[in-house]
Amino acid sequence: MMRVCAQRVAEASVTVLNELGTVDPTFDLRQIGPGLLLTVEAEPDDDGSAISRMAHHVLTLRCFDGPQGRLTLSVQEMRGEILSVPQPLTSLRRQSVGRPRLVSHDADDEHANLTWIRFNEALRSGNVPVYEGRFGARMRIGSIADGPFQFTLRE
Question: Which 3 state secondary structure label does DSSP give 87?
């Protein structure tokens, strides 16, 4: 079941960090203006139809102010942009003593990466500019929220 956290933003950006924790010079800063910052979590059973349905949900989510200040516009209608960031399928395990441990559930990283790429392509087919982070990388993500409006969509 694909999960997308969508945050309405005035602007957002992402840069990739290298093994030393500094900015990776091989990755150009990705920046958007008004639009949606997406954190995308793919699961092993996600297929083409799930990707299409989720992209449709994101593109038609009416979370932007219309002419009378009501939430009547989608990211497509307000000609916004999307910044899509992959989120590994993870959870925290709390042992009885000590700090929690992050546990990855991605049995097939290649499938998760391809699902994320196909999802971004499906978003682009809606004539919305889509910028991406990098799958499997440590990233620094910045945003200025426009709201607060944050939605969790599940397929």
Answer: coil
- The whole domain housing 60 covers 3-154
| Average pLDDT value for residue range 51-68 | 95
pTM value?
0.88
Three-state DSSP at 95 gives: coil
pLDDT cut 70: percent of the chain above it? 87
Q: Of 17, 112, 35, 41, which Cα lies nearest the Cα of 73?
A: 35
* CATH classification of the domain holding 55: 3.50.80.10
Contact 130, 6 (CB under 8 A): no
The total number of structural domains in the chain stands at 1
